[in-house]
Q: What sequence folds into this?
């Protein structure tokens, strides 16, 4: 390896992100009213592709582990550079995240890890960088979603358990668990998850990623 590009060590401050993704046939059910039954799973995939693509373009990120059993999603996201971790627990979102963290730390025991939603189609790498830079100051930290009810991001430093409690009003659960809430302004793209047509319109106002824009705008046109 070139001296200009030394291998990363456990001492570096890069992150491993864990992104969970349901089987596409089940993903984003609330979006069907706006997108239709045929487009909905492909929009869910586009959201994940744009999310993972943006994450991999973030300079603070070392790698991304996507926890999924969906063959189409696995192929598409692996092609972007993600590591695919089969959801062997098959016990819901938080079990999948804990499993993903174990997979990361089986290779790097002291990895700095973060869970990130797969439905952030407007995600900007520079905004994620700002969130990660704040998160590294705390053992555990999280970012609430745009509604300030759920969570889009949860981090754990080296040697710290992630303790994910995603789903529904997870902001309060993560606060109660001792995680520090990140209250940065100007990171809207990291908070803007998409469950409904209204959410997708709000993400569109921020600027959709290329795969989501291609699928959604072609359908709308």
A:
């Amino acid at each position: 390896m070139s001296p200009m590009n030394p291998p990363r060590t456990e001492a570096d401050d890069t992150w491993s992100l864990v992104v969970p993704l349901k089987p596409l046939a089940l993903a984003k059910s609330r979006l069907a009213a706006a997108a239709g039954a045929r487009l909905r799973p492909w929009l869910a995939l586009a959201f994940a592709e744009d999310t993972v693509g943006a994450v991999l373009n973030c300079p603070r990120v070392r790698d991304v582990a996507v926890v999924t059993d969906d063959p189409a999603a696995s192929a598409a996201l692996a092609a972007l550079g993600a590591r695919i971790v089969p959801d062997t627990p098959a016990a819901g979102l938080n079990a999948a995240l804990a499993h993903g963290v174990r997979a990361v730390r089986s290779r790097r025991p002291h990895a700095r890890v973060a869970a990130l939603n797969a439905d952030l189609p407007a995600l900007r790498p520079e905004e994620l960088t700002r969130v990660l830079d704040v998160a590294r100051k705390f053992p555990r930290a999280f970012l609430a979603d745009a509604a300030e009810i759920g969570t889009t991001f949860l981090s754990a430093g080296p040697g710290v358990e992630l303790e994910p409690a995603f789903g529904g009003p997870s902001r309060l659960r993560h606060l109660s668990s001792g995680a520090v809430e990140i209250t940065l302004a100007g990171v809207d793209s990291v908070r803007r998850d998409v469950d409904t047509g209204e959410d997708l319109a709000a993400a569109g106002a921020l600027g959709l990623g290329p795969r989501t824009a291609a699928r959604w705008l072609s359908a709308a046109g």
Notes: The longest strand covers residues 61-67.
